[in-house]
C-alpha cells in the first residue's frame, strides 16, 4: 500500500523558502511554494556564506555546486577613511576552527541553484495575503515571506514589525576585481567593498539619515559628496558609479522579537522570524540554517507539532542573539562621536573573536 505523502505550503520563494522546500521534497514530502514576484531576480549584490550556511547547503545536496560558483574570502579588514587599519579579520583562524571559510556569491546565483534543485517547482505571481487560509489544506505551513512578512503580522499582530535602524544604505556592483574585503568606518558613515563572482566588485555604503530620505537622480552625487574624500579604494568604486545601477534601501530590524517562531501548524523562518540589520552578513546564512533545522525536524517526526517545537527551541535563542549583536554592530558602525573609542572597541572585539560560524 502506497502512503500518501505529507504536505507543506511554503510562502516565499527566496533563499529560506526554496531551501526548506528542497529538503522536504528530498524526504518525500509534497510541497507547494507560493512566491509573490513573477520571476527570480536577475540582479543582486553579493552574499557571504559562513561555514554553518555552507554545511546547510551540503545537507541540501548543492554545496559542491555553490563552492564551484562562489569564491573564498581570503582576507578582511576594517579601515579608517584615510585607509589606515582599525582591525584585520583572521580568516585563517576561522578555517582552522571550522574546516571552511566564508564564500562569496551573488544572490541571483544562489537562488538559481536552489530553484533548479527544486525542479523549478515554484508558483510565481501567487501572493498569500492570509496565511491562515492554508492551514486546512496542508500538514504544515512555512512562512518565508521576508522582512515585511504578512504572515508575521497575521499571526502575531502589528506590534512585531520592522523598525528603522536609523541608517540608509546604497548597494551595487562595479567592474574589476577588488581582491579584498574591506569596511571603512567614518563618523556616521561607512563603505564596504567585497569581491564577487564574474570578476566584479560588490560595494555598499551606509549613512545616518531620516527614514525614507531619497535624492532621485542624485544618489551618485550624494555618495560622492559623502565619500569622495575617502581612501583610494572607495574612490575607485565611486568613479565607476552610474545612477541606474545604484540601489538605495533603508536598514530595518525586527523589534520586539517574536515570543515564538511557531503559531499553530505554521513556522516562520528567515527574516519573517528574525530580521536583522546586515552588519554581520548573516541574514541569508541564518535562513539556510533555519530551513535545514525545520525540514529535518519535520522529516524526523510523525507529529508536526513536536517538530515545530524542536525547530523553535533550536533556532529562536541563537537567532535572537544574532539580531542583538547585529544591532549593536550597526550602532557602533554609525557612531557620530567618540569614534576613536568605537574603533578601539571594534579592534578588541575582532581580536577576541567574532560571531559564531
From TrEMBL:
Acyltransferase is among the record's keywords: no
Keyword field contains Oxidoreductase: yes
GO molecular function terms attached to this record: FAD-dependent urate hydroxylase activity
Broad class of enzyme this protein falls into: oxidoreductase
Known EC number: 1.14.13.113
UniProt keywords, alphabetically: Monooxygenase, Oxidoreductase
Entries under Pfam families matching the protein: FAD_binding_3
Gene3D superfamilies: FAD/NAD(P)-binding domain
Domain (FAD-binding): residue spans on this chain: 8-117, 141-325
InterPro entries: FAD-bd, FAD-dep_Monooxygenase_BioMet, FAD/NAD-bd_sf
Official protein name in the record: FAD-dependent urate hydroxylase
Organism listed in the record: Streptomyces rimosus subsp. rimosus
Amino acid at each position: 500500500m502506497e502512503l500518501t505523502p505529507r504536505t507543506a505550503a511554503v510562502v516565499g520563494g527566496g533563499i529560506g523558502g526554496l531551501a526548506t522546500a528542497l529538503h522536504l521534497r528530498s524526504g518525500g514530502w509534497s510541497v507547494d511554494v507560493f512566491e509573490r514576484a513573477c520571476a527570480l531576480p536577475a540582479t543582486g549584490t553579493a552574499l557571504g556564506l559562513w561555514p554553518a550556511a555552507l554545511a546547510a547547503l551540503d545537507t541540501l545536496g548543492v554545496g559542491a555546486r555553490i563552492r564551484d560558483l562562489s569564491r573564498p574570502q581570503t582576507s578582511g579588514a576594517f579601515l579608517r577613511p584615510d585607509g589606515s587599519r582599525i582591525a584585520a579579520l583572521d580568516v585563517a583562524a576561522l578555517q582552522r576552527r571550522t574546516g571552511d571559510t566564508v564564500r562569496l556569491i551573488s544572490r541571483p546565483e544562489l537562488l538559481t541553484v536552489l530553484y533548479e534543485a527544486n525542479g523549478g517547482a515554484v508558483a510565481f505571481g501567487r501572493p498569500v495575503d492570509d496565511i491562515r487560509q492554508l492551514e486546512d489544506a496542508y500538514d504544515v505551513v512555512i512562512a518565508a515571506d521576508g522582512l515585511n512578512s504578512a504572515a508575521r503580522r497575521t499571526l502575531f499582530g502589528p506590534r512585531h514589525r520592522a523598525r528603522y535602524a536609523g541608517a540608509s544604505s546604497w548597494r551595487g556592483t562595479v567592474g574589476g576585481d577588488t581582491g579584498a574585503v574591506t569596511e571603512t568606518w567614518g563618523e556616521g558613515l561607512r563603505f564596504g567593498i567585497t569581491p564577487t563572482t564574474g570578476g566584479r566588485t560588490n560595494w555598499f555604503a551606509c549613512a545616518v539619515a531620516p527614514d525614507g530620505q531619497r535624492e532621485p537622480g542624485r544618489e551618485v552625487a550624494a555618495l560622492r559628496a559623502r565619500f569622495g574624500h575617502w581612501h583610494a579604494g572607495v574612490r575607485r568604486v565611486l568613479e565607476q558609479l552610474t545612477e541606474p545601477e545604484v540601489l538605495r534601501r533603508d536598514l530595518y530590524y525586527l523589534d520586539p522579537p517574536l515570543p515564538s517562531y511557531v503559531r499553530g501548524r505554521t513556522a516562520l523562518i528567515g527574516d519573517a522570524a528574525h530580521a536583522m540589520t546586515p552588519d554581520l552578513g548573516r541574514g541569508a546564512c541564518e535562513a539556510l540554517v533555519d530551513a535545514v533545522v525545520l525540514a529535518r525536524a519535520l522529516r524526523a517526526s510523525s507529529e508536526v507539532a513536536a517538530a515545530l517545537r524542536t525547530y523553535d527551541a533550536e533556532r529562536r535563542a541563537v537567532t535572537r542573539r544574532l539580531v542583538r549583536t547585529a544591532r549593536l554592530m550597526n550602532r557602533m558602525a554609525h557612531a557620530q562621536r567618540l569614534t576613536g573609542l568605537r574603533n578601539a572597541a571594534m579592534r578588541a572585539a575582532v581580536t577576541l573573536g567574532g560571531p559564531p560560524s
